[in-house]
């Protein structure tokens, strides 16, 4: 092919220059249909520098976060929840990311990492904020999630039903494995599946590596810094809402949680019903 011959001549002519490199780059770019990019740091408007792939390359990004830990059961931590947020890289979310950054800027939150649990509990960066201001931030996050072209799925275990870390890890691994097998054609439709996780729990990191590498043909793992990826913060938010849903169904919501949302009915109507529309 002309492309191969041109490259060969450049490599052997002895007159290689930046100009020649640019000409080759331009030629190759024209042969490809487009660009595929990972959703990137919020400080860069949500998208990393583009990397191009071949004509039919399909990529699925999976952002994973958890709520709770593998420790012993306690009333304040009855569940261990894992959330996977799925984003097809062909679905452009640049406009939604840009709009969300603008909305946060209006609230005085520039390059701010949204952490949903502390917003509700009035902790960390939100400990000195009024409930109305914290709800305003949360409402922006929920509106952002509703606009995004994403899907998600949650896995959970009730810690009082497992004896130790080994049993908990095994049960969670089986749930994830069963879900992938049930949706195998969905995952196989992608040439590559990239897993984004902050390695917050060693047990979960090991389970993900074992299960996903065993079942899927082409998986890559990337360790993330939560503050740099809005979709990771989305996974955190969905995890928190899944926890609230489980607690609501079992009459375990605290008085502070009910007060923040106004009522259980308001929690369900204004938040949970919108989030669960993205579930698969």
Detailed description of the structure:
The protein is an alpha/beta fold and 280 residues long. 49% of the residues lie in helices and 15% in strands. A 5-stranded mixed β-sheet has the order 5-4-3-6-7, sandwiched between helices. Helix 1 packs antiparallel against helix 2. It is globular and about 50 Å long.
Nearest-integer average pLDDT: 84
Strand percentage, roughly? 15-25%
Number of helices: 11
Class by alpha and beta content? alpha/beta
**Spatial gap, N to C terminus:** 45 Å
Largest sheet: 5 strands, mixed
Low-confidence stretches: 1-54
Number of strands: 7
Strand order in the sheet with the most strands: 5-4-3-6-7
Fraction of residues in H or I helices: 40-55%
Shape: globular
Structural Rg: 22 Å
Elements, N to C (H/E): HHEEEEHHHEHHEHEHHH
Secondary structure elements and pairings:
Layout: H1 2-13, H2 18-31, E1 35-36, E2 51-52, E3 59-67, E4 79-88, H3 94-106, H4 116-121, H5 131-147, E5 151-158, H6 165-182, H7 184-188, E6 192-197, H8 202-215, E7 219-223, H9 230-249, H10 255-261, H11 264-275
Parallel strand pairs: 3-6, 6-7
Antiparallel strand pairs: 1-2, 3-4, 4-5
Helix pairs in contact: 1-2, 3-5, 6-8, 9-11
């Amino acid at each position: 092919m002309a492309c191969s011959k041109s490259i060969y001549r450049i490599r052997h002519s002895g007159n290689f220059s930046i100009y020649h490199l640019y000409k080759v780059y331009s030629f190759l770019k024209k042969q490809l249909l487009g660009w595929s990019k990972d959703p990137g740091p919020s400080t860069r408007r949500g998208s990393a520098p583009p990397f191009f792939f071949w004509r039919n390359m399909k990529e699925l990004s999976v952002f994973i976060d958890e709520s709770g830990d593998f420790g012993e059961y306690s009333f304040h931590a009855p569940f261990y929840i894992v959330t996977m947020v799925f984003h097809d890289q062909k679905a452009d979310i640049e406009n939604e990311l840009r709009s969300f950054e603008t909305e946060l800027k209006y609230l005085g939150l520039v390059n701010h990492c949204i952490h949903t649990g502390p917003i509700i509990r009035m902790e960390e960066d939100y400990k000195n904020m009024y409930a109305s201001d914290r709800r305003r931030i949360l409402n922006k996050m929920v509106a952002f999630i509703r606009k995004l072209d994403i899907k998600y799925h949650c896995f959970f275990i009730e810690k009082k039903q497992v004896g130790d870390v080994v049993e908990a890890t095994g049960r969670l691994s089986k749930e994830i494995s069963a879900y992938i097998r049930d949706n195998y054609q969905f995952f196989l439709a992608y040439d590559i599946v990239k897993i984004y996780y902050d390695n917050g729990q060693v047990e979960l990191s090991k389970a993900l590596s074992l299960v996903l590498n065993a079942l899927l043909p082409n998986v890559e793992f990337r360790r993330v810094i939560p503050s740099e990826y809005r979709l990771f913060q989305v996974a955190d938010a969905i995890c928190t809402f899944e926890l609230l849903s489980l607690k609501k169904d079992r009459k375990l919501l605290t008085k502070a949680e009910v007060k923040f949302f106004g009522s259980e009915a308001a929690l369900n109507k204004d938040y949970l019903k919108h989030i669960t529309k993205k579930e698969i």
